[in-house]
Design brief:
By secondary structure, the chain is of the alpha/beta class. It has a single domain, classed as Aldolase class I (TIM Barrel, Alpha-Beta Barrel). Helix content is 45%, strand content 15%. It is built from eleven helices and nine strands. Strands 5-4-3-2-1-9 form a six-stranded parallel β-sheet, sandwiched between helices. A three-stranded parallel β-sheet has the order 6-7-8. It is globular. The structure holds 3-phosphoglyceric acid. The site of 3-phosphoglyceric acid has 12 residues, from strand 9.
């Protein structure tokens, strides 16, 4: 189920390597923001369901920028997963394990990247046939030391660490063989978005791209 080899969206996440995690309050920001990131080579984004605008933001990007890989993040329920997919999301990401959401995605052939914080949760996902999970909140949980420790018992599992990834430590995460890609909010901070400062966001995106593709 959603093998890493045969799920195109997972390939796109792997080649983008650093995935901006975006919380968009105003749908009109969605396309200029995603376009700014894509111009700098960050062609995959995670739009969080932390605002009312999330679904609209996803649909605007899906319509205007079909080349951008679109994940819905902070998806907590099957209803949100369905809304995300109807809006144009190509994959669903959750901060934790929600069996109902995972099962809805699997039944509907929607790629799902659930958040894990423990070995038991990794095993739960393995039993559902998943081979890519989020590690959240990565830095608090132990960061690269935890990822190295997970390699022993789960050699085939790949992780998308998110939470505490910054320009200073992103390369250290990305060089681990079990890290598929990283996610982070630092590329599009709320303050810059509120100010409409897409120039500064573009600079942060360029910096992230250079870290991901040295
Ligand atoms: C997430 O939703 O994945 C996290 O909030 C991202 O954490 P960060 O703000 O430390 O990047």
């Amino acid at each position: 189920m959603f093998s890493l080899d045969y799920t195109p969206i997972f390939h796109q996440l792997h080649s983008t390597k650093i995935i901006p995690v975006l919380t968009i309050s105003s749908p009109s920001d969605a396309v200029p923001l995603a376009a700014t990131l894509a111009e700098q080579g960050l062609n995959a984004v995670e739009i969080t369901f932390r605002t009312e605008a999330a679904a609209k933001a996803i649909s605007e990007i899906a319509y205007s920028l079909p080349q951008v890989t679109l994940c819905a993040g902070t998806v907590l329920t099957p209803e949100q997963a369905e809304l995300a997919v109807r809006s144009g999301a190509q994959a669903v990401i959750s901060p934790g394990i929600n069996p109902e959401t995972i099962d809805w995605c699997l039944s509907n052939h929607v790629p799902i990247i659930p958040g894990c914080a423990t070995p038991s949760e990794v095993e739960f996902c393995m039993r559902r046939g998943l081979s890519l999970v989020k590690l959240f909140p990565a830095a608090v949980l132990g960061g690269t030391a935890l990822l190295n420790a997970l390699k022993g018992p789960y050699p085939s599992m790949k992780f998308m660490p998110t939470g505490g990834i910054r320009p200073e430590n992103a390369a250290e995460y990305l060089q681990l063989s079990n890290v598929w890609c990283c996610g982070g909010t630092w590329i599009a901070p709320q303050s810059l978005l509120n100010d409409g400062n897409f120039g500064a966001i573009g600079s942060l995106a360029a910096e992230a791209f250079a870290i991901a593709h040295p």
